[in-house]
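From the methods appendix. Each design record in this collection lists the tokenized structure first, followed by the designed amino acid sequence. Records were kept in a plain field format so they could be parsed without special tools. The example shown here is representative of the layout used throughout.

RECORD:
FOLD TOKENS (186 positions):
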């Protein structure tokens, strides 16, 4: 049971460190570089914010995006327009421009340049965006940090308690041996 608790503690602290690291990485990319979706290793993720792609994609779905070199009509892509990300389906391709449209929209979008495309949606995780958005919020990050410190503090207290018990056991053994030795001397 003790090993399980230690493993869970390590997992939770690692998860907290990863979330905070990703938040800092994303903040840096968005604020300093103007990149709304960083794509380390050719993959990125985002949370769907509107119902324009219903029924295929719903609000709060998390999408995984892969950076592609070629696109075809029917692909669901993510592109950056200003500082926002848009997830729509390709309906027309003309050399370096692509026209997209949300499945639930009546009209198509203005054509965009291929260089604005982040990639193709390759995987969807329904409703996970609620948790992701919470963890990305200020309150979520504060709760994660407090939780990580709490877990570390509990770990240190348990370790100190165990060390004290070990020291008490050693002292008791020393007393026992002294008593045994003094009884033998008499």
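DESIGN:
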């Amino acid at each position: 049971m003790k090993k399980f608790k230690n493993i869970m503690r390590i997992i939770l602290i690692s998860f907290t460190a990863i979330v905070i690291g990703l938040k800092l990485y994303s903040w840096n990319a968005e604020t300093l570089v103007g990149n709304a979706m960083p794509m380390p290793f050719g993959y990125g993720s985002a949370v769907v914010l509107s119902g324009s792609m219903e029924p295929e994609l719903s609000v709060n779905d998390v999408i995984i995006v892969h950076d592609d070199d070629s696109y075809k009509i029917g692909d669901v892509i993510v592109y950056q327009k200003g500082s926002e990300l848009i997830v729509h389906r390709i309906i027309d391709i003309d050399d370096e421009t692509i026209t997209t449209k949300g499945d639930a929209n009546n009209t198509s979008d203005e054509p965009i340049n291929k260089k604005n495309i982040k990639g193709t949606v390759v995987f969807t995780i329904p409703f996970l965006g609620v948790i992701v958005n919470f963890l990305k919020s200020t309150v979520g990050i504060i709760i994660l940090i407090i939780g990580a410190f709490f877990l570390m503090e509990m770990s240190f207290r348990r370790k100190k308690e165990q060390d004290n018990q070990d020291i008490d056991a050693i002292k008791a053994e020393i007393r026992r041996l002294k008593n045994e030795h003094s009884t033998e001397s008499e």
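APPENDIX NOTE: The chain is about 45% helix and 25% strand.
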